[in-house]
């Protein structure tokens, strides 16, 4: 399985928990013999999406902006299991992770298709795909966590993921993440 | 009273988000409010622009954030702008403490290209959570699907198709002008489909094909440049 890990935490102290989780996820996946590609997104030069849709309509599949997102897009296309790590930001994702996700639309097709009774875009690269999203939060916040899980669910619908997991890790819980990741990876291996 | 429109689309004033946001702002202006508008792209351009945004937010009684749905939620630059506003309001990271009035009402306008308004739900929840975490008064959201059918066309001249959007803007503006929130009736009107889902899908797919053809890319529509085997379908 190709495992792609996107660490969406900021490079400063606020991203420390994300870095720990990303390292644990990479180690656990490698231990199980999977190929791992990992990006610390805040260390890359990824500009915001301009909303030009050139990636759909002018040069399908490639973005008009030439920067580090191209290597992320390539890894996304090859990935079987996507692992996103982010500080919860008003219940959603960090701007760092979101900047890369906004720029991931070259990997889907413009056309509409109906899936699960809703309209979505078909993937450009057809494959069985799993999605695990791990969010960090200093302390429990039920509403922020509800939003986060709902958002991951919607992302999964759009990605047509065959396995979707979302977990929130509070401050001080990072140490136990390896055990939880082991279970998540096993579930992914079975589903993908 | 002052109203501020923040446009969260990367296309700025050439966007559906601006069209809808300006629709609400214009009604507030007609009703006697002083209005100001800015874009997230401008606010993030420099430290000076960022401080201009802070000042505009400080002075506003009603803040309207209008944006398109990007990958199921807010576009990244808008999240970044909200983080800056939140940091400032919390006085975090050496930021200047918040100087704004107490009961500032926050309104979201969210539109997505999918026909189902429900796909905007996480985005609306995130905006509400932002208000909760920062102490703004959540005043509600006008959320709509089929945003592609709105575009930059005149809301008033578009006729029947946008009649519910126009009614929603009218009702929202009337309530905000009298110190209230966006009424549930306005939220429900905005959420109504602009046309049948089938028709919207047909028109959208025809539009994609037509624009691909215009750019000479119709035969490359399904290209997979990052597939292991290179190009091909």
Care to describe what's here?
The complex is a heterodimer of chains A (192) and B (233). Chain A is an alpha/beta fold. Chain A has 6 helices and 7 strands, in the order βαβααβαβββαβα. Chain A has a domain at 50-172: Rossmann fold (3-Layer(aba) Sandwich). In chain A, the strands form 2 sheets. Chain A has a 5-stranded parallel sheet, with helices on both faces. Chain A has a two-stranded antiparallel sheet with strand order 4-5. In chain A, β1 (2-7), α1 and β2 (35-40) form a beta-alpha-beta unit. The longest helix of chain A has 18 residues, at 142-159. Chain B has 2 domains: 2-195, Flavodoxin domain (Rossmann fold, 3-Layer(aba) Sandwich), CATH 3.40.50.360; 196-233, no CATH class. Chain B contains 8 helices and 5 strands; from the N terminus they run βαβααβαβαβααα. In chain B, α4 (76-90) links the parallel β3 and β4. The longest helix of chain B is centred in the last third of the chain and has 18 residues, at 197-214.
Mind sketching the topology for me?
The complex is a heterodimer of chains A (192) and B (233).
Chain A: E1 2-7, H1 16-31, E2 35-40, H2 54-57, H3 69-78, E3 81-87, H4 95-102, E4 113-115, E5 118-120, E6 130-137, H5 142-159, E7 163-170, H6 177-191
Parallel strand pairs in A: 1-2, 1-3, 3-6, 6-7
Antiparallel strand pairs in A: 4-5
Chain B: E1 2-7, H1 16-30, E2 34-39, H2 40-43, H3 47-59, E3 62-68, H4 76-90, E4 105-111, H5 121-134, E5 137-144, H6 163-177, H7 184-191, H8 197-214
Helix pairs in contact in B: 1-6, 6-7
């Amino acid at each position: 399985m190709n495992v792609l890990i996107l660490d969406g935490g900021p490079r400063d102290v606020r991203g420390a928990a994300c870095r720990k989780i990303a390292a644990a996820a990479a180690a656990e996946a490698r231990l199980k013999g999977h190929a791992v590609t990992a990006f610390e997104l805040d260390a890359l030069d990824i500009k915001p999406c301009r909303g030009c849709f050139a990636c759909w309509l002018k040069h399908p599949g490639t973005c008009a902006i030439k920067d580090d997102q191209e290597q992320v897009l390539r890894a996304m296309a090859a990935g079987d299991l996507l692992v996103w790590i982010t500080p919860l930001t008003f219940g959603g994702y960090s701007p760092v992770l979101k900047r890369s996700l906004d720029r991931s639309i070259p990997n889907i097709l413009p056309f509409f298709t109906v899936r699960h009774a809703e309209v979505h875009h078909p993937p450009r690269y057809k494959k069985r795909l799993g999605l695990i999203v791990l969010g960090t939060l200093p302390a429990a916040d039920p509403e922020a966590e509800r939003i986060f899980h709902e958002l991951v669910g919607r992302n999964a619908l759009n990605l047509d993921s065959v396995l979707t997991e979302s977990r929130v890790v509070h401050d001080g819980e990072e140490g136990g993440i390896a055990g939880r990741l082991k279970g998540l990876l096993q579930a992914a291996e079975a589903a993908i | 009273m002052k109203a501020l429109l923040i446009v969260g689309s990367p296309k700025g004033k050439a966007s559906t988000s601006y069209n809808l946001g300006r629709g609400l702002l214009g009604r507030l202006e007609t009703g006697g409010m002083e209005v100001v508008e800015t874009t997230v792209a401008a606010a993030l351009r420099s430290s000076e622009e960022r401080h201009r945004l802070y000042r505009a937010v400080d002075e506003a009684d009603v803040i309207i954030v209008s944006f398109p749905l990007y990958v199921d939620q807010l576009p990244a630059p808008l999240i970044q702008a909200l983080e800056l506003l939140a940091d400032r309001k919390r006085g975090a990271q050496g930021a200047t403490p918040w100087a704004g009035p107490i009961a500032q009402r926050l309104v979201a306008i969210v539109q997505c290209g999918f026909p189902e308004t429900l796909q905007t739900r996480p985005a609306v929840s995130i905006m509400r959570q932002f208000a909760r975490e920062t102490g703004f008064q959540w005043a509600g959201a006008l959320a709509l699907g089929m945003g592609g059918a709105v575009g930059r066309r005149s809301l008033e001249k578009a006729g029947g198709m946008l009649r519910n959007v126009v009614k929603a803007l009218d009702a929202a503006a009337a309530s905000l002008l009298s110190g209230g929130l966006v009424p549930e009736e306005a939220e429900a009107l905005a959420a109504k489909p602009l046309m049948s889902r089938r028709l919207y899908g047909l028109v959208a797919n025809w539009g994609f094909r037509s624009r691909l053809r215009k750019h000479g890319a119709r035969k490359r529509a399904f290209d997979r440049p990052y597939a292991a085997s290179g190009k091909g379908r």
